[in-house]
Amino acid sequence: MREAVDDFADHLARVRNRSAHTVRAYVTDLVSLLDHAVRMGCADLSELDLTALRSWLAKQRTMGAARTSLARRAASARAFSAWAHRAGLLPTDVAAALASPRAHRELPTVLRADQAAALMDAPRRAEERAPGDADSGPNEAAGTDSGRQPRTPPDSGTGHTPDGGAEHASDGPAVEEAVLLRDRLLLELLYGTGVRVSEACGLDLTDVDHARRVVRVLGKGGRERAVPYGVPAQRALDGWLGRGRPALAGPGSGSALLLGARGGRLNPTTARRIVAGYAEAAGLPRTTPHGLRHSAATHLLEGGADLRAVQELLGHSSLASTQIYTHVSVERLRTAYRQAHPRA
Known about the structure:
- With 344 residues, the protein is mainly alpha-helical.
- The chain has two domains: 2-86; 113-295, Orthogonal Bundle (hpI Integrase, Chain A), CATH 1.10.443.10.
- Helix content is 54%, strand content 3%.
- It has twelve helices and three strands; from the N terminus they run H-H-H-H-H-H-H-E-E-E-H-H-H-H-H.
- The protein has a three-stranded antiparallel sheet with strand order 1-2-3.
- The chain is globular and about 65 Å long.
- It starts with a helix and ends with a helix.
C-alpha cells in the first residue's frame, strides 16, 4: 500500500500539477483512509470497498471533523480510487458512489474601503513615527499593548527578525526605511491586485511590466495570468526599487521582487505576520493576506466590475468560486438597509 501512496503522490505532482500543499493534504487523507481499511480487515489494496470508505468518513465525523474537512477527505478518496482503478490496483472505482456532505460556505470577512485605506497608510504612519534608533529592536507583533503604532516595523532587520536575519543590524535607519518601503509595497500588491500571498512572494523583478502597470502571476496549477495594479502600487514599487530593495539585497536575493531581512525572498509566513501586525497597529479587525484578497474582490464588484473580469483577476478556475463575493456585496447592502431604513 505504501508504494501505491507514493505513486499517487507522484501522479498528483507530475501529471496533475498540484501544489506541494495539495499533495501533502491528499496523502495525509489517504494514509488515514488506508490505515482505517487495514483495521477493518483489508489485507490488500484490492480489497478496499465502499463500506470501508463510508466507515472512515463516519469515524472522522464522530471525531468532530468539520463538514469542509469531510468534503475534502471524500474528494481525496474519490481521486485516489479513480487513479487506482485506472492503474489496475482496484478492480472497480469503489469511491465513484461515495457521497460527501455539502460544505457550508461562510461569507468571507472583508474590510470596508476606509479600513483598507487605513491599512495601506499604516507603513507611512510608522515611518513618520519611527525614531530611527537602530537599537530599538523590532516589534514582531507590529503593535503595542496600548494599541499605538510600533516604533519599528515587523521584520525590521534590526536584531532578531521574523525571518531570522540580523545581517543588516548595523545599517539601522536605512534598513528600517527599506523594510517600511517593502511593507508598503506588499500591502499595495495584496489589496491592489487581489493576488494570493504565495503569488506575491513568488514575484520576480521580470514579472513586473512597468509600462503597462501589470504583474505576471503564476497561480494554482501553474496557470499564468496578468493582473493590473494602480498608481498607488506603482509609487510604492518605485520607492521600493529605488531606495528599499538595494538596502536589503544580498548574494541570495536573486531576482526576487520582495525580500526579507536577510536578503532572501520574502516568506509567505512573514508576509502574513506583517499584514496582521499593521492591521492590529491601525486598530482594524484581524486581517490576513487572504482577507485583503476577499476585500479587493468585494470592492471591485461593489464598484461595478464584471464578475467574469473579477474571476480572471483572481485566477479562479470556476466562476462559482468568484460568485461568493456577490453574496458578500448583497449581505453588506442588506445590513446597511437594516441599519439605515426606517421601515427595515
